[in-house]
Amino acid sequence: MQGEYERVLFYYSDLPRFFVSLLAGASLALAGAISQMALRNPLASPTTLGTASGAQLALTLAFTFAPSALSYGSPLIAFAGAAAATALAFGLASRRGFSPVVLILAGLLINLYCGSAQYALSLFRQEEALSVYIWSAGSLLQNGWSGAIILTPAFLVAALVTAIFLRPLALIGLGDDSAHSLGISVRTVRLALLLVATVLTGLVVSVVGVVGFVGLLAPWLARLTGARTASSQLLWSPAIGAVFLWVADQAAQLAGGGHYEVPTGIITAFLGAPILLVLLSRLKREQSVESEGSNLVRKLPHPWLWIASILTLLVPAILFGLSANWVPASFGFVFDPVFGDLFEWRAPRLFAALLAGMLLPFAGTALQRLFSNSMASPELLGVSSGAAMGMVLVLLLVPSAEYQLQLGGGVAGAVIPLAMMLLLGARSKFAPERMLLAGVATTTVCGAVLTALMASGDPRLWSIRGLLAGSTYQTTWDQLLAVSAVAFPAMFGVVLCFRWLDILPLGVPTASALGVRISGTRIAILLISSVLSTGATLLVGPISFIGLMAPQIARLLGLRGSLQQLAGSAAVGMMIMVLADWFGRYLMFPYQIPLGLVTTFIGGPYLIWLLWIRR
Amino acid sequence: MSSTQTRRDFIAAGIMAASAVLAPASGFCVEQASGPQRIIALDWGLAETLLALGVKPLAIPEVRGYRNLVDPDLPETVQDIGLRTEPNLELMRRLDPDLILVNPGYAGIADILGRIASVETYSIFDGSGKPFDNARKALVQIATVTGRSEQARLYLEETTVALEQLKASANDFRGRPVYLVTMIDERHLMIHGNNGLFQHVLDVAGLRNAWDQAGNIWGYSNAGIERLKSEPDALVINLGPVPAHVQIALKSSRLWSSLPFNRRGQFHTIPSLWTFGALPSAVRFSWSLTDILRGIPHAG
């Protein structure tokens, strides 16, 4: 009897797992190599373009709401999600000449957005959550040959199509113009090959979940080991991908010690992120983000009057937030004796929203000016994710951690992406695109680690889910005081830096000529920003997009000077947060949507729109 | 299933008849009016305890989840107050309860809850390893607080009846190993150890928990399905619903079908059962287990 199970285990689990690890690795690597060549972008891959996340979200939705569709259609569903995500990233980038940074930003956006949607689902559909987490973290576990049966023909067909397009693909590598003059329809080839990559990714995700970074890593290793021509890269990438994923899978099985399944995706994320950083440091200078079109926005007359009006409008908004109800079938205000109680419950979360609505725009404005890049923000630079990681680790190690200790853990976590930025910055003179991409790497790794922790099903982590989704439900006055004690001095510090912040966007030579000590200033501003981001993360979770949105809105309004932008963005940020808190309370009443989720769902489309209009 | 229903109905009818007879004599009506009647239960186990005592809670969290996981027969008029982890304070305040029942997990918001109504905390899974005893105590205590001592006595009688019935049906299975599990996905499960809520029910039935070790504070451990092969003649009983996508995966899994209990058709599922509940969950488990054992051919 015992032997029978072992035999079945070998033939129906271990053996197919071996083949699936090879096939999935090869397929992801091929998809990565194809997209990198078609887009002439060494950073393109199923992970960085958001293709895999799109497939994952589509499947999670299907798992939760239409499980019966899965018995036949899971590859189709995965493909639909993968296609939607790729089309979005691709569409955004195509307007800007496939700028690598825009592609990667769009991909990160899709990754973050899908991640938030998963959190939301796990909050509201707990029964299904655990198994979805395990699967979505990328597990190669097999129960038969069905996975291998799907992937084998898929990989072979994709390889065949790629072989047919080999010549045009090699010519695209020479540049769109030369390819065009040689009679190639660049557009058609690009679309056809991206379609192949997307289908392949969708199928892999439907079989093993999201196994990140293989598609980025394998082509890189292929180039590194001397594959120069298109054909040799296309040949070697899948081979390397297959071996890499097999090794990663063995490591995952060893790490679990046979008791607990460590998702293979975690291992590949850990190995892949440093490679991404290496790739970044080699990015050519010419592929940078162009300077901002800030001059296009006309300067606002009487800026302080405008800021004062927004701040004045905040008063009725706060009163509205404290008193208005919108329970099913009745909208109204409460000013009766009940108001006393309601005030006690609504006020702390409202003030948490206000405080975060001030901290994040301050951090965002400082970072955007520091890097002369309107895409710099605590969220996209990975500072917030690092802070969240730090807090989660503190909670795991010291279950009864005081709030101050969590705050400390958060700052420690925020320093890691900061240190990476400084390290990379030293070599690239803080080139904005390096900073952004370093942030992408941090955010992606933190995301993978958090998903893994969730998959472990540790009961301590159920409470952390609220924190990660940005819930202000349990915010107390004491917590507000603790964050304020750190945050207000930091905000004051930013205000003190206002001259530097005015000068830095003029460019390094100008700033140096004006007597600013560049590196010292940068370190100071980065440190202050990470404290601000940590404070905000403790209150509203790592992803809210307020630090990105509010400074930009202030700039679009025409607030030019750094003091004006700081004050204006804080006013805008607080306004958005107060309204988001109110909607979060009533949109799904009696269920309350965490504040961080509400602002993510507002901020995501805003960022897409922004990438769309910028030229 | 239907036989359980009939038995339950029969017993319920008996209880009602008994109450009708006993009520005047024991001053039951007066007692009923005296206790708090507008009660919110934030813990599902405490909610089902209230229902067992004939008190309809004003509101509970995650009504949909309760119907899926605990008991589909929740009265329609029980209100939903949002997530278990974040019950809606404003709605609770508006409903104006006079009592809120919680487990120690709500200590963080106990002060806030205390301003809405008086709060009673009951700890069924307290690490003592005796959740069944705690659940029985909680039932009696809640009955005292709500003035339902008579119902409590009757419910404890029903519990005894359920356990006796089970014992009778388990006669041919004495000493038989049983795994109590909850499937997470096609390869992982929670396996309920000897400090879970249902251990006492197994003990009364004379069945042996094949996973004879303590789990975490809730009485379970995470494990892979291969653990279930160490006792080849064990019955395996899955507690709670198996997610639809897991069912699909299990159907096509050779590994799963090769496990000894599957080849003998000894994998049983009790689809709506809350392993972290209270006494009514244990009683429901007892009836379902009785049905399962009666359905098994004696040679099995």
List keywords for this structure.
heterodimer, A: 615 residues, mainly alpha, ABC transporter involved in vitamin B12 uptake, BtuC, two-stranded antiparallel sheet, 2 strands, globular, B: 300 residues, alpha/beta, Rossmann fold, three-stranded parallel sheet, 11 strands
CA gyration radius of chain A, whole angstroms: 25 Å
Number of domains of chain B: 2
| Poorly predicted spans of chain A | 285-295
Average residue-wise pLDDT of chain B = 86
Main interface by residue count: A-B, 52 and 49 residues
The count of strands of chain A amounts to 2
Identify the strand order in the major beta sheet of chain A: 1-2
Question: How would you characterize the overall build of this protein?
Answer:
The complex is a heterodimer of chains A (615) and B (300). With 615 residues, chain A is mostly helical. Chain A has two domains: 19-279, ABC transporter involved in vitamin B12 uptake, BtuC; 332-613, ABC transporter involved in vitamin B12 uptake, BtuC (Orthogonal Bundle), CATH 1.10.3470. Helices cover 75% and strands 1% of the residues of chain A. Chain A contains 25 helices and two strands. A two-stranded antiparallel sheet of chain A has the order 1-2. In chain A, a hairpin with a 2-residue loop joins strand 1 (324-327) and strand 2 (330-333). In chain A, helix 5 (126-136) packs across helix 17. The relative contact order of chain A is 0.12. Residues 285-295 of chain A have low confidence and may be disordered. Chain B is an alpha/beta fold and 300 residues long. Chain B has two domains: 2-158, Rossmann fold (3-Layer(aba) Sandwich), CATH 3.40.50.1980; 174-295, 3-Layer(aba) Sandwich (Rossmann fold), CATH 3.40.50. In chain B, helix 3 (44-52) crosses helix 7 and helix 7 (131-146) runs antiparallel to helix 8. The two termini of chain B are 20 Å apart. Mean pLDDT of chain B is 86; it is low at 1-33. Classes of the chains: A mainly alpha (615), B alpha/beta (300). Chains A and B meet through helix 1, helix 5, helix 14 and helix 18 of A and helix 4, helix 5, strand 9, helix 10 and helix 11 of B.
